[in-house]
Amino acid sequence: MRLIKALTLCLLIGLAVAAPRHNHKERKESKESKESKESKESKESKESKESSESDHITITKDFFPDEFAVYTADHDIVNILVPINSFNFEDDDEDNDTNDDDGITLFFVEADIDKAGNRIDKGLYVLKDGKAKKLLDNGRDAAASSDDSKDVFFAAKDGIYVYNKNDSTAIKYGSVTDSVIGIAKENSTDLIYILTENYDLYKITESGNKKEKVNEVVGAREIVLDGANNLYYYGDDLKPFVFNGGVVKEIKGLPEHPKTVRLLKPPFFIDDSVPFITDNDIYFINANGTSEKTDFDFKSNAKPTAFSMEATLLQYYGYNKKIYEYNVLAMILTEVIDELKEFLETKSDAIRSLSTQSRSRVRTSK
């Protein structure tokens, strides 16, 4: 039962990490008014210990059962994007010009990793209805805003591409010819950030034809935007920073000298933070320069190679050359509910809130 509960906790990472933010812990009051003080203290101490142990989740290989795999690749899955703009999800109050029977479309990148940790491009793909199609031989990353647009952009060795949904192809976007390794799209503007192979950061505007170097950001290795358009990055020393309004802030409160780090795209409802993996621990790093450790960590042999939790209730992870799908609502509606009743009751309000928000029209079945 603990494995299933832990798995659901992992799937609800967007919900569970809210607990450390607000630092709330619910305590059960005794129903027996005649209970002695000593007995109550002993019971509360035991419950507190059990709660603390159950709240901390270590992700193991058991979190990746074969039945959750939706795609098997020939190479490592190193990036996954589920667009949460109107490409996949229409707002409830808008005219829906897409077919509601359409399944979720996601994009992913395959690569081989050499002994030095460098990626060898093996293609950028689109995956829909279990079928994958290669779009670019040298695609490295994908980005989409979380607003009402329907565009999906790709970083490639020879510049920027945009997805053509009509014939499922990638077409050149603008005049950029740099070798791009990272890309991020702002909400509610036309601005795109690109990170080049030389670790230079640029702002791209005017339909991809204007390129402006961001001199304040030096030596970035990876970039991610949060919902409020704050840009997070880390350099060769693996220390993370946040950039906005021309100001760079170093993130404080993290372990020193990590061996590996990774920035993740955040759940759609989080505006001022992003998940950050340092070695095997998961933190949230915030736009104000602070950080918060979550209740999750990984076994070294169970760390995903790619993450997509943007949609929150429908998440995808790359592990062992496979893409795994975790549909939270579908799990809740099955027999899992019986084993998770107590946990889900404490999260029910948050789950209902998420399921009715405009960006979370996630299908519970295919």
Automatic annotation (TrEMBL):
It comes from the Eukaryota. Residues 22-54 are annotated as: Disordered. SUPFAM superfamilies: Tricorn protease N-terminal domain. Residues 1-18 form the signal peptide. Residues 26-54 have a biased composition (Basic and acidic residues). Keywords: Signal. This is Ommochrome-binding protein.
